[in-house]
Write a structure and sequence with these properties.
Structural class: alpha+beta
Distance between the termini: 52 Å
Number of strands: 34
Strand order of the largest sheet: 2-3-1-4-5-9-6
Shape: globular
Number of helices: 18
Length: about 650
Amino acid sequence: MNQQQRTERMNIGIFAHVDAGKTTTTEHILYESGRIRALGSVDSGTAVTDSMEVERQRGISVRAALASFTWQGVEVNLVDTPGHVDFLSEVERSLRVMDCAVLILSAVEGVQAQSEMIWNALRKLGIPTLIFVNKMDRTGADPEAVLAQARTYLSGDIIPVQQPLGKEQEYSGAADLWNAHADTAAQTELLEALAERDEALLELYMAGGEPDLSNWKREMQAASAAGRLFPLVYGVAAKGLGITELLNAMIDYFPRAGGDASQPLSGLVYNIQRDKSMGRMAFVRLYQGTIRNRDTVTNYSQEVQAKVTQIRKVEGGRTEDIGALTAGDIAVVYGLSGVRIGDVLGSPDAIPQEAKLAVPLLTVRVFWEAGTDDHKVIGALQELADEDPQLGAEWLPEERELHIKVMGPIQLEVLDSVLESRYGLKVTFGPPSVIYKETPNGTGEGYIAYLMPKPCWAILRFHIEPGPPGSGLVYESVVRSSDLLPQYQNETARRVPEALQQGLYGWEVTDLKVTLVEGNHHVWHTHPLDFAVATPMGIMDGLNRIGTRLLEPILAVRIVVPEENAGRVMNDLVQMRGSFEPPVLQGERMIIEGRLPLATSLDYPVKLSSYTKGRSTFTSAFAAYEPCPPDVHAERTRRGVNPLDQAKYILSVRKALQG
């Protein structure tokens, strides 16, 4: 135990926009550290962290992959996350369990939409971050422009600790600015950058004299480990240039994983995958305590006990039984029956908050060939929804329809491939439709007196008002427990979010505050489930009186096109109800940033690529849900009976509850 407690450990996530060279960097890190004997490649489908068949075929990462190695005596868990926006939910889950992060930027493309989104999430969670500027040997590589962009879009506290040697094809590496023989002007710039941000260092700098570089570097290390400064290094991952220096920088500037192995258990399940022979694999980050093979642990989220059958380190296709998982480490735990992503093992006290990035904006219907067993398809997609809860697989028995939520078209291609290779199922998908939402038009009340058919008695009055954009649902009760018993109040509170899943137009109702202002039960006639029946009727009564308006998803977009196409792009954006900032000329390319409704721009990336002959890039990220113009109408068929038809609704719910 003492030996395990003394082990220095780090959990590092590798993040980037798609095609910045993330998996290639990971592969070279594993090779350089001696963890693998031969280099794999993304293009030839042999990368260790791309273990799924579809990843090897497409040359993209779909899953967050875990790999471990040792460098300078420190044990490192490295998570290579997907770069494509369609797999943002994998990134989101990985972010939560990382202690530090490497953000890779391309020396040619610079800061892209997803790099910015990940950066904001890293800052929200306070995760120390190092920047690796990759592809320094490419034509068009411009480290000065990338640094200026990074300081504009990401943080003014990004500080290069190296000086690039040579440009583009002439690039030969980077010089360490902490070396006594480093370029004087570049080293002075580094020291001045530190002095500007620290009063004690400023005094030391102003006093003159020969600086003690080791002392200054220690100050930089402390500020970086605390997430106040962000060191920047350079390299060419595909040639292995700068990888050793990147590894050294991780050890120099990143904090070690904390946690006490002797404390009560506190861990988080951040990923679920499946093993053909062993079943469900729960990827667990442990913050406190120890889990051993054959231990029984408490699943706090589900309030159940679960038995651990085995603990393994998993890497690509290889696994290794390690027998125990201790605080600060990450491993795969087998045997936790029914475990789900996000489940807390033991106590939640030591577990950090999460940063929400992924919002599925499209819904599609799944079709399969006649003669295929419905239950096999439904079971397969529900199993995949365990691995990615954002899928929200929903089977509508009355309509005999299966619907899923997705981030984009690449995700559908991957699902198609996984369903065929893992389950032997051939499916097709209907055209994607945009997921709208609703919000109250104003303030008002909803009332229900559910007194018939006996035995029943539940009276509720809700005050409903709009909330700020992005606030979701805020619920509170001002009813005294003498008027409405706590157990009935709890049942009502539990049913309000369910009641808001379908508003007047069939979409989820959001950005509102619901306050229970009156509630009444009957000593003899009330049954606990009466409030489960009454709540949706009271809520829908209120929404019907107030009215709701549609909200649509808006994307933040960045479009880079040849200068001659810029006029047409701006015209397109206006036609699609978009807005944009004044375009910026960079070399012969025009950069246009703006906001665009998803509904009007679903096919635009293909159209743009076609008329610019592939010489354009279109990157987008979810920005917000905003009110639709009055002429936009989008209604979704309601599932189940509408609570506004109270008599029919009561009969259907009572039947379902009794069943």
